[in-house]
Fold this protein.
Amino acid sequence: MLVLGIESSCDETGVALYHTERGLLAHALHSQVAMHAEYGGVVPELASRDHIRRVLPLTRQILKEADCTLGDIDAIAYTQGPGLAGALLVGASVAASLGFALGVPTLGVHHLEGHLLAPLLEPTPPAFPFVALLVSGGHSQLMKVSAVGTYETLGETLDDAAGEAFDKTAKLLGLGYPGGPALSRLAERGVPGRFRLPRPMLNSGDLNFSFSGLKTAVLTLAGQQARDEQTVADICRAFQDAIVEVLATKSLAAMSQTGLSRLVVAGGVGANRQLREKLSALAARRGFEVYYPKLEFCTDNGAMIAFAGAMRLGQASQGEWKFNIRPRWDLGACRT
Ligand code: KG4
Ligand code: ZN
């Protein structure tokens, strides 16, 4: 079965073709970063309009790359939520229209389920059950994943998501949008230990996070320092050290609490090199396995949506092409 996946929840248009026997055949992505950069963040209306412009040309491109035609598609999966309403509507309506035209079923996929299952696209995927550290721009949570559709939230952020904390901190340091990758690049040049920032909720005794205080601490620290390049890099390092320590410590606690031996890291912040190094070192020392998606499948992409759709083909609509979007949608409520 050949599944077309469409991702349009925020500022990236992603499409992919996943075949249930042959694996990922092709994928393509258009990032809107350059368009939103001059506004310092995502402008929802511009995002929706750009998705409209990109989705069909990108779909034609991957069909060509995979040497397939529209007629080869057996089902269409699209991101149903969470995300920006207008942006989601583009993917959902294109999926429904194409599905109707081709006479193939469609199904809405939870964006975070896409992130969560992305490591299963790798050549040596983790077996179920596993613990997932899901750290993106909008969400930070630790989940117990027993099977596709069987997710238990172990802990989550009480305020900002990890990626949001990266982005907001980068903005207040004048690093522009999107700030996470820029901040992490600067942090690599920062001197560890020159500054020390708080580790919020490190010893809270549960698996929840809180990151909003960290950006306030950075604001205070930055206000007391000269803004030379090295000092900014050192502040970035202190911020990254704090966030990585909290995420790693809580992940470790989740491993002990569940007694599981596999950890999956997913979502945009999962692309962070320091976080990956720290978790890999801990895994080697504590004797558990850690799995990451390819860097390009950590951040938003169509491949994870096509794959999650392929895992849920049994739920695809048959003979009707109604669609709805769910801009707010709890992953725990998303069952098979
Ligand atoms: O998963 P994603 O593409 O979108 C959401 O579903 O939110 O994650 C985007 C987030 C942004 O906040 C971005 O700053 C962050 O992931 N991010 C990073 C890195 N690459 C992307 N944060 C830290 N280090 C990185 N290397
Ligand atoms: Zn995402």
Notes: The chain has a mean pLDDT of 96. Residues 128-292 form a domain with the Nucleotidyltransferase; domain 5 fold (CATH 3.30.420.40).
